[in-house]
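Minutes, project check-in

Agenda point 3 was the complex the collaborators sent over. CS summarized: two entities, 227 residues total, and the question is how they sit relative to each other. Sequences were read into the notes so everyone works from the same version.
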Amino acid sequence: SYVLTQPPSVSVAPGQTARITCGGNYIGSKIVHWYQQKPGQAPVLVVYDNSDRPSGIPERFSGSNSGNTATLTISRVEAGDEADYYCQVWDSYSDVVFGGGTKLTVL
Amino acid sequence: QVQMVQSGAEVKKPGASVKVSCKASGYTFTGYYMHWVRQAPGQGLEWMGWINPDSGVTDFSQKFQGRLTMTGDTSISTAYMELSGLRSDDAAVYYCARQDVLANYYFDSWGHGTLVSVSS
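CS then shared the predicted structure for the full assembly.
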């Protein structure tokens, strides 16, 4: 089955840039989506199709995908960005696959 | 606006079945697949499967084959997920999430989640 690997945690100071990676074998050939989940809440889509943003998601959120790594970048991080972030792909063998999640801490 | 309202929390005994509903509003129910995703306490997201409410076609994760049933009632825009043979490790929050049939496999709207507890 296809595996997505995320770092368990990332820490960043307010106003700085957070980069959350999602590793997978030739993930650059797949389409990656990202979700934000705050405690006690359902996930929210923040980036889809590698780099597109749903309406209502700030431009500070961006995505890229190449080689064996996809990256969610959050610019000018705010306290309200503190959450768990999950990457997700569709794989022809495994169907829908989620990464293990990354806890973003705003220092 | 889009809303997906799930049924309330359930407490089940091992070996029992649970059926969770997800009532959709604010969009064309048959224009979206409905997926189910679960999250065990303190754990990550786990995809379970999807249903095309228009045709009734389903696709499940191999992990749940034989235990999982998904149905839809287009007359009331409601999707259902039933998991049988419950075990302690099935205790989780279960989410419904919609996917545009014309889009890639991503979920642009989610239900609020239904907590399922499994305890003897």
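Noted in discussion: Chain B touches chain A through 22 residues (CB under 8 Å).
Follow-up: revisit at the next meeting once the mutant set is ready.
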